[in-house]
Class III cytochrome C domain protein (Geothrix limicola), 187 residues
Amino acid sequence: MHRFDRAFRFVLPAAAVAILATVLSVGWFTQPDRFAKGYAPEQPIPFSHELHAGTLRMQCQYCHSGVTKSRSAGIPSPDLCMGCHKVTRTERPAIQKLAQIAASGEPLPWQRVHTLPDHVFFDHRPHVNAGIACQSCHGEVQTMKVITREMGMRMGNCLACHRDPHAVLPPGSKITKGAEHCSACHR
C-alpha cells in the first residue's frame, strides 16, 4: 500500500496541473475572434472614425448617446446619420444605401466590434462618469478609418485597470481603485 500512496502523491497533482493547463490552453486558443484584439468585422456601410471623430471632431457621445444613460453605449440609428447626410456627400453609393435604409425604417445592421461574453456584465456609465476617456479601452478611434478592437476582452485587462486606474483617470480624481469582487462583473 505504501507504493500506491507515493504514486498518488505525485500522479494526482501532476494530473491536476495537466488538466488545468489543457483547459486554460483550449480556452485561450479557441476564443471566438469577436473577443480578440485586432477584431474588425466588415460593416454594412463604410464608416471612418478618422473622418468623423478625428477630422470633424465629433464627440463619441453624439453617435453613442447611451454611454452616460445606460449600460450600453448604443449604436447610431440611420436617422442620426441622415441628420447630416441629407445634404452631405449624397452622391456617394454608401450614403445612398444609408438613405434607403433610413427611408425603410429598418435599423442599420452594424456589426459589434467590442463585445463581451454573455456571462460578463459591463456598464459604461460609471466609467464615463468617472472621466475615463473612451480611448482608454477602445484605442485612438479618431485615427481609425476602420474601427478595430485595440484591447483584448480578457479579464486581466479589466482587473489591471481596476487595481491601478491612475493612468486612465483625469488628474485630481479621488478614485483609487475599481471593484475587484467577482459579482462586480459576473452576474
Notes: DSSP finds eight helices and no strands in the chain. The radius of gyration is 23 Å. The chain has a mean pLDDT of 89.
